[in-house]
Write a structure and sequence with these properties.
The complex is a heterodimer of chains A (567) and B (254). Chain A is mostly helical. Chain A contains 20 helices and no strands. In chain A, helix 7 runs parallel beside helix 14, helix 15 packs parallel to helix 18 and helix 18 packs antiparallel against helix 19. Chain B has ten helices and ten strands. In chain B, helix 8 packs across helix 9. Chain B is globular and about 50 Å long. Classes of the chains: A mainly alpha (567), B alpha/beta (254). The interface between A and B is large, with 35 and 36 residues.
């Protein structure tokens, strides 16, 4: 036990030091992030509360739906937890840098296993527990549950987490013995992305909006009929629901105790089995994970051609940086694989426009088409900002520990930042224009709206990319091992907030002049002379917002990066 | 040449470098010695431009690093002790990237790259990703990149870290050759034999201050009774450590 606690202590002390003595202003950042997390928590709580209240009041199928939903949420959480444990345990059992030290020390493999198992469990589960909590609290509140429900909730959650952890860790031990750890990480990452894309596309192509359409009611009735069918009694999510549901409906404890015992004993057995498996498979798996992959890169590859093409208009130092960034991006599986997500996003985005039931609306179709087209500027910009936070914002942090090369070289920071800007601008411009032009085409808008929206999005992308590069320079995270995590920090959040403000401001400033121009053109009326200067003033204000959005973040980023010292 | 004029560096409560002044002349190899935490790496990082001095001035080849950073860095080659590189590039691509940053022409690059890969025995690995290189190979790649643009000034932090004896011999010969070509070299090291062997002058830094500087012979003369640079170094930086070490080793002998 003493050794087990000792092995956990570095993580504990690192956490304490991070909370206590971080950089200047880190306490403020922590409070801000906690505030945003609580806001999300409250949002989930409120949304579920409304949904469950509605279900409870609905005669007949309301209770069935609430019961089914509980099982589905448990199942979803369970699957997420198992997957998350697989990914986390890859690092904590096989790739973590301190493993050499641990394995060289006179510590038993068993102690290392339990300490790493605890780390994996905490790292993989805390977020699911935090954001899942409101769902089950809402169940208790809506169904006026007694204290026994909340006690059972803890009794169910703990073994379920342990079970998911044990399954995840065991799966990793086996996988690493089949493939090398680094390759397994890539395969899992790709699989998870493909799974998300598949679920996303399936969900969207099912057209859930048909459920609000009375014509499709027969399908809905059939759907509920199928819901009454029981789910598999072998699933831990079924056991969890079987423990909790009776507490909400005063149905006694006898069945609940049986299922609780099932959960606890299965979790314990799975954890013990995982430990035995680790004793057998950890060492050979760890050895395999140390193998370095030799990858010979062909000269004159398509990547070279792309790098040459992208860097062609620039001077030598920028060209070198562009070539380096493009090659590093496409050779990193964690980076390029996310382009698949991007493609799915575009497909679904455009699909939504193709199935909009505009003709069923009481508002004239022509009017509505153009109105939606205008709102679409904001929506498409938000999609661009989401891409920006994932790809543009980490552009500076991407240099990582090699940032010393940039700082000690004769490349000025100004050129460094602006080169980053030019690397990310063209692809985001293409995505944004495709979204706008194709959706406008599907909406069949007027030429005026086509011009207004494609020009507006063009300038918005200029600003969003500058915000991404600039804020990425204000909040760089050169120490991070996983570049994907850069977007999830305080800086990423600030980027999303500022992008939303920027896009909102532009859309608001353009709304009145565009509406005025549109209406006058529609009815063939001449524009009164007093409106012209006002319209011009609005567009000047829009131009000023764009210039500020480009110049200000780049300047601040440059100054902050200049003040920052490299490793 | 390198010139540090009253340079200090303060990290929160710690004064890492304290009013340091030193000069490395053209064609001179200057050894920078000192115990761990003395301020050697901080000084080197300030010269490299990755850290800003709190006060003082650094001049590289006559140019103020603060006022003319680009011109100063163009003639500077840096070899850090930890080989952090772009792991997803091949060795050849990395050198091409460095050539781009330092403005080496394409034709010159191709010739230099072949020479350097051959010199540092990396030819077979040049089209493989850096992530598959060993520590020593990465160190040799950094050395190649630092010499790619024919710098007038070379700053090296621990040149022998990660190198095998063959690599160590190679680097000594290269330093001597560079010196003959008029390159100024500032080298921090814990390998006192290396300092004694190749350095024209040696400076000893302790608690961020330059304790003393001179040739290896003059340092031996300063530390009376010392016949080796190691003894002189220990005496000048606090000989009691040696006694403590002996006591510690006695405890360990059971």
């Amino acid at each position: 036990m003493k050794t087990y606690l000792l092995l956990l202590s570095p993580r504990f002390w690192s956490l304490v030091h991070r909370i206590r003595g971080g950089e200047e202003g880190s306490t403020g950042k922590l409070f801000f992030m906690a505030g945003v997390a609580l806001l999300f928590w409250g949002g989930i709580f409120y949304g579920f509360y409304k949904a469950l209240e509605y279900f409870k009041e609905a005669e007949g199928f309301g209770l069935v739906l609430a019961h089914k939903l509980m099982g589905m949420v448990w199942l979803t959480f369970f699957v997420i937890l198992v997957f998350s444990n697989v990914i986390t345990s890859l690092s904590s059992f096989f790739l973590s840098k301190d493993l050499d030290l641990l394995h060289a020390s006179p510590t038993s493999l068993e102690n290392i296993f339990w300490a790493r198992f605890t780390n994996t469990l905490v790292d993989s589960s805390w977020m699911v527990v935090f954001f899942g909590m409101p769902v089950y609290l809402v169940y208790g509140l809506v169904f006026h549950a007694g204290p026994l429900y909340y006690l059972s909730l803890v009794g169910v959650a703990v073994p379920l987490l342990v079970l998911a952890g044990a399954l995840g860790v065991s799966a990793t031990q086996i996988l690493v013995n089949i493939f090398p750890a680094r390759r397994t990480k890539d395969i899992l990452l790709l699989l998870s992305i493909l799974l998300i894309i598949l679920l996303y596309l399936l969900f969207r192509l099912m057209q859930p909006e048909r459920l609000v359409n009375p014509d499709a009611f027969t399908t809905v009735v059939g759907y509920f009929a199928s819901m009454r069918a029981p789910s598999s009694p072998y699933l831990p999510s079924y056991w969890a629901t079987a423990v909790l549901w009776p507490q909400l409906n005063d149905q006694g404890l006898s069945d609940a105790l049986f299922y609780l015992a099932m959960l606890a004993s299965t979790a314990l057995a799975a954890a013990m089995l995982a430990s035995i498996l680790s004793n057998r498979l950890n060492r050979p798996g760890f050895n395999r994970s140390q193998e370095a992959a030799r990858r010979i890169i062909k000269r004159a590859s398509p990547l070279d051609a792309l790098a040459f093409l992208a860097g062609w208009p620039f001077a030598s130092p920028s060209r070198a940086l562009i070539a380096k960034d493009i090659k590093a991006f496409f050779r990193d599986n964690t980076q390029w694989s996310q382009i698949l997500l991007l493609l799915a996003l575009i497909v679904v985005y455009l699909y939504n426009f193709s199935v909009l039931p505009l003709k069923k609306s009481p508002i004239p179709t022509f009017y509505l088409q153009n109105f939606i087209s205008f709102l679409n500027i904001g929506l498409a910009s938000f999609v661009v900002a989401s891409l920006g936070v994932r790809f543009v914002f980490p552009a500076v942090s991407q240099e990582g520990f090699s940032y010393w090369i940039i700082r000690s070289s004769p490349l000025s920071l100004k050129r460094f930042l602006w080169t980053k800007y030019w690397i990310y601008l063209p692809p985001l411009l293409v995505v944004a224009e495709v979204l706008i032009v194709v959706s406008n085409y599907l909406l069949d808008v007027t030429p005026l709206m086509m011009v207004v929206s494609s020009v507006t999005i063009f300038f918005l992308v200029l600003g969003i990319v500058a915000l991404g590069v600039g804020l990425g320079a204000v909040y760089p995270r050169f120490e991070t091992e996983n570049i994907v995590q850069v977007a999830t920090g305080f800086g990423g959040l600030m980027f999303m907030i500022l992008s939303a403000i920027y896009v909102g401001l532009v859309v608001i400033l353009e709304a009145w002049p565009v509406y005025t121009l549109f209406v006058h053109q529609l009815f063939g009326r001449a524009l009164p002379s007093w409106k012209l200067p006002l319209i011009a003033a609005c567009f000047v204000a829009v131009a000023a917002v764009h210039v500020t959005a480009v110049v200000l973040p780049m300047r601040v980023g440059l100054r902050r990066l200049g003040d920052r010292e490299a490793h | 040449m390198i010139e540090l004029i009253k340079v200090s560096k303060q990290f929160r409560q710690v004064l890492a470098v304290d009013n340091l002044s030193l000069k490395v002349n053209q064609g001179e190899i200057y050894g920078f010695l000192g115990p761990n935490g003395a301020g050697k790496t901080t000084t080197i990082r300030m010269i490299a431009g990755t850290l800003k001095p709190t006060t003082g001035q650094i001049r590289i080849d006559g140019r103020d690093l603060e006022k003319e950073p680009i011109a100063a860095k163009r003639v500077l080659g840096i070899i850090p002790d930890r080989p952090f590189l772009y792991e997803k590039l091949t060795g050849h691509e990395f050198l091409r990237f460095m050539a781009g940053l330092y403005g080496v022409s394409n034709q010159d690059f191709e010739e230099r790259a072949i020479e350097l890969f051959e010199l540092f025995e990396l030819g077979d690995w040049r089209h493989e990703l850096i992530e598959s290189y060993s520590h020593g190979m990465k160190q040799r790649l950094i050395m190649s990149s630092a010499m790619l643009h024919r710098p007038k000034v070379l700053v090296v932090d621990e040149p022998l870290v990660g190198l095998d004896p063959r690599g160590g011999r190679l680097i000594k010969n290269i330093f001597r050759q560079l010196k003959q070509n008029g390159v100024s070299i500032l080298m921090s090291t814990h390998t006192l034999s290396l300092a004694a062997e190749v350095c024209d002058r040696i400076g000893i830094i302790f608690h961020g201050r330059l304790l003393t500087e001179g040739t290896a012979e003059s340092l031996l003369a300063q530390a009376k009774g010392s016949t080796q640079l190691e003894d002189a170094f220990l005496m000048l930086t606090g000989g009691q450590q040696e006694q403590a070490l002996a006591r510690f080793l006695d405890i360990g002998r059971s």
